[in-house]
Amino acid sequence: MKKRPASFNLFKSKDDGVPLSFVRIEEAIGGVISQFSPPQERHSTQTSPVTMRTSLNLSTRTEVYLSDDINLPPQIRKRNMVINEIINTERSYVEDLDIIIQIFLIPFKESKLLTDSVVYEIFSNVEALVGIHQDIAAQMEEDARKSNGSGLGDIFVKKSDHLRFYSLFCSNQKRSTNIVDKLQLQNNKVKDLLRRCESNPVCRSLPLGSFLIKPVQRICKYPLLLRELIKVTPTGSSEHAQLLEAQQKIDLVLAEVNEQTGEDENREKLLELQSRFEEGTSLVTFNRRLLKMTTLKEVTGPFRTLEKFKYLLFSDALMRAAVKITGKLAVREVILMEHLSVLRADKPTDIVFKNSANNNITIASAKTQELREEWFSAVTKAKQFSLQLQLKRRNTVAIGNHSYHPPELHVKTSQPEPETPAVRMRCQTTIGRMGQLRRATRDRKRRLSHEPPQRDDHLYQTFSCHYKDKRYVRLLSHKDKTVSLLDLNQFIEEKFGISNLIIRYKDDENDLITIVKQEDLDIAILDFRVESFFLFCEPETILKKNATLTRHRYHLHWCSEFLSSLYFCSIALSGVYNCGSALRLRGHPVKALNGFVCTNKIEIIWPVVVLSDVSASPCLTVSYSG
Amino acid sequence: MGCGNSQEEVPKASAPNLLEKADYSESYIRNKSVINRKLLKVILLGDSGVGKSSLMNQYVHQQFAAEYKATIGADFLTKHVMIDNVPVTMQIWDTAGQERFQSLGVAFYRGADCCALVFDINSEKSFDSVTSWKEAQIQNPHDFCFVLLGNKVDIENQRQVLKIQRVNPLMMSGVQKESSQLVSAKNGTCVVDAFDCLAATTLNRDDLVS
Asked: Please, what's the largest Cα pairwise distance for chain B?
């Protein structure tokens, strides 16, 4: 087994010269970062599969964190048992995630049988999840030891935002399973490798799919576990209040994850459907869902013959489409939901669709009476639902305007502050678009004395930083191994006037760059492998100036290019800019996030961070509408 | 607990001592015909508290935790059985939690052969919601074989729902009525029977379809 990249040691010890602020960031964003700094026992599991197996076997016995002594008062005993269950299941979940990484992900990456992007499609951001849950498990254990498990609610409250990372994983899950299934059929080498991995005893003869579904299962269990814990916690206690808050937060995050997953799946479905239509038909719109699709017959033409029509019921409209000889579908009529009404015709299989916009009436006959009834109820339901949705949307807008508007911060960015300079930082990802590539190369040539080897243009990335809207710097290109630490350091000092910025640039193997600024702005950019980089900003010092915005964290998780210009970007935010957490780009129009309006470019503007992706085609920009 | 339970289902390469038992001991069945063994994925659906996890545990482990029931059981358990002389691996999925989230639930129903709708015979509500479970969760009801399981028959005196025989046939369309049973996860009444029956029905149905 390959040794873990040395980058994992980066955050490991606090006493080997890592500056204090660094540590502070590490703590602040520990949940996510800790994937780079696995606890000690994880190191031991990596060195030999045998140790790993032992440790896993051990874990199947359940640990007793809090006493379940029979002499304890029943309420307390029950509570202890619930807490034990929460921690134990968390532990075993972490182990399962570990199996995914150690037994499957690493061998797959090393085998080079699949491209990095396919590997990423299969495993998604599972590495980020491990980090989060190791942290949660460790905190829970500590809490159980030190304060009898009374801080579990607090842990959940604090970590709930990290769980937003599940949006990406969950929406990817279906595609992942499909890819694994397909690969097994098409690629014998992959199949063999998979068999070898699965035959590892730690896998308990479970296939990869069973492991990859675990995160989806786990996140769904938190509400249940919290509910149980709340039941056995005395009402009125501060712990109880905390747990209620935790429950609320987790529910919110889960609802979000669920929604995102549904939307992603729905979009895929609509795209697939769209491909069956004549060219130029566009079905994909925000929030549209396909509810029902059946072939119904209509009496048409001069000879009054029965002809087949595809009836598609969407959440916002009904569509009639004719089936062409080529097999493609051609749209005949679209009736908006508010204009649509249905009636039962006299004939038991016939249904009448009425378009109140032009008073058009269509009579369609279903195969059976049962099918007609299905259609009838589906349309009725859809009408109700669309009405509800309209109401809901109206409310959401009202709330959004109220709580997502941060005017003070906008003012702040436009006023340069001498002492605590507001750093506007722009990160660009440039991947494979020739014009940009050339520009990037030119800029780099100008600014860095070294000419980097252009060995993999397609994975070439640059980040550039804007400082007070005037100075800017292209910070690094991670495939560019010739940028030395010294270069970068000098560069930033020169461009930003920040001399005590600490830059950590790891060796070739890791593609990992960390930039940490001590005082004015804490930034850590972790560029881990090709597919994703993490950008963490703790603009605490700036935000401190606003009494209302004391402590906010931004976790940006950007997973860029995979599978030819498909883009995934997931942004998890906490604090006031809680913008609905994730934004995923797949080369299609992006939905407007709460408080963000989409144009055909994506640019997300925070008081201190501008993150833009100029590489996607077409360019996508989200700009804050506030 | 988590993946813990399924640990027991690891096929041990050498477990000859287990073979001493009856011919249909698990290891025998397991070893008998790996190639011909069918995998049946069964999902349990129903209100919370109707005893889905307990049923699963009773069937696979013949255990019932009266004292403290873990909130979340195993994600799924497997059991090797013989159905009409066909070795079958039953993979039973507990749907604790994700049923509230439709998009997340889809992953679990994928590839399922049979769906057991579980209700508590002492709770009218849990029985009424069976239909909504069926409709809300399953996108292609025609791909599934449905059975109804009324749990908690051991609590005789409080029994409110005994309607399983006189279920509105339209409401329960698509449910295999002959395989639907009253069971008790607590004392094990009819549990094995019900699952075997369910497996047989599913297999027969699959044969008919194919």
From this structure: 51
Give A108's contacts (C-beta < 8 A, 6+ positions apart): A114, A119, A122, A123, A193, A197
Out of 3.40.50.300, 2.60.40.3880, 3.30.460.80, 3.40.50.1110, which CATH number does the structure's domain B38-207 have? 3.40.50.300
Q: How far apart are CA A272 and CA A175, in angstroms?
A: 13
What was the pLDDT predicted at A1?
39
- The H or E element spanning position A221 is helix A214-231
Report the C-alpha gap between A229 and A193 in whole angstroms: 42
Percent of residues, chain A, with pLDDT higher than 70: 51
Which regions of chain A carry the CATH code 2.30.29.30?
281-393
Q: Which of A173, A204, A225 sits opposite B3 (nearest CB)?
A: A204
The answer to whether B183 and B189 are in contact (CB under 8 A) is yes
| Confidence at residue A213, expressed as pLDDT on a 0 to 100 scale | 87
Which candidate from B75, B101, B110 shows the least CB-CB separation from A258?
A: B101
Cα angle value B120/A374/B101 (rounded, 5°): 50
Position A556 pLDDT exceeds 60 = no
Q: Which residues of B touch A228 (CB under 8 A)?
A: 71
Measured CA to CA, the distance from residue A349 to residue A29 in angstroms comes to 61
Burial, A426: exposed, middle or buried (Cβ in 10 Å; 0-12, 13-18, 19+)?
A: buried
- In our burial notation (b when 16+ CB lie closer than 10 A, e otherwise), range B96-115 reads bbbbbbebbbbbbbeebbbb
Nearest CA in chain B to A166: B104
CA A146 to chain centroid, in Å, comes to 33
Structure tokens at B32: 């008998």
- Residues carrying CATH 1.20.900.10, chain A: 62-270
Q: Give domain A62-270's CATH number out of 3.40.50.150, 3.90.70.10, 1.20.900.10, 3.90.79.10.
A: 1.20.900.10
Section A515-521 average pLDDT: 32
Q: What ipTM goes with this model? A: 0.71
Answer yes or no: are the C-beta atoms of B121 and B152 closer than 8 Å.
yes
Q: Is A177 on the interface with B (CB under 8 A)?
A: yes
Burial of A141 (0-12, 13-18, 19+ CB in 10 A): middle
**Chain A residues in contact with B71 (beta carbon < 8 A):** 82, 85, 221, 224-225, 227-228
**Cα gap B196→A8, rounded to integer Å:** 50
Model pTM score: 0.57
Spatial CB neighbours of B17, under 8 Å, sequence gap ≥ 6 = none
* Rounded to 5°, angle at Cα A556 from A501 and A401: 120
Q: What is the CATH number of domain A281-393?
A: 2.30.29.30
3-state percent breakdown (helix, strand, coil) of chain B, nearest 5 = 40, 20, 40
Q: What is the pLDDT of residues A31-63, one digit of tens each?
A: 333 333 333 333 333 333 332 333 333 344 567
Cα dihedral A235, A241, A244, A246 sign: negative
Residue B114, token pair as written in the block: 């049979």
Whether the per-residue pLDDT at A458 is higher than 60: the answer is no
> DSSP labels for A326-393?
TS-EEEEEEEEGGGEEEEE-SSTTEEEEEETTTTEEEEEE-SSHHHHHHHHHHHHHHHHHHHHHHHHH
